[in-house]
Amino acid sequence: MTAYPLSWTAEKSTRGHVPGWLPGAVVQPNPAVVERAYGLGADRLCARTAREFTQQTLRDWGLEALAFDVELVVSELVTNALRHAVPHLAAPRPIRLRLLRHAGHLVCAVHDPSDRPPVVNHEDELAESGRGLNLVEALAVAWGWSPLRTGKVVWAAFAVDSAAHR
Predict the structure, then answer these.
(1) Could you tell me which residue ranges the Histidine kinase/HSP90-like ATPase domain spans (predicted)?
(2) Domain range summary for the chain, segments of one domain joined by +
(3) pTM of the predicted model, to two decimals?
(4) Dihedral, CA atoms, 20, 76, 44, 62, nearest 10 degrees?
């Protein structure tokens, strides 16, 4: 596994406008950021558990208007971790979901134990699978990934505007 410093984020690892506070906050806790985290394990029920955790957190934060898009993206990121990160390990290690809220943005960050980067599939428009990151890219204002000392974090950011507080 390649070891990277915690602050490293490849220029090509992001799509969209990235809030300035985000790169540091997705790799380590920031006291200025409101955060909730959940350890998901590495089994097939993780995506459902992640959606339920996300739904409850958004309800608690008064951000129900974002629930559909955010739950869909969380489900895709967790499913990608289960399909592409966990199976390549000798012993499965857990996936962790963090929801962060700060400065007009909500961020979902999925930590997985693999150092393999996420791959966006643009080639086959008729494929029945493999387009989850295209969906993430379409719904989030920005998304990306950062390698960690062990594994990586894949994240997606959503704008929190006055419409989200209805």
Answers:
(1) 47-145
(2) 11-15+41-118+129-165
(3) 0.80
(4) 60
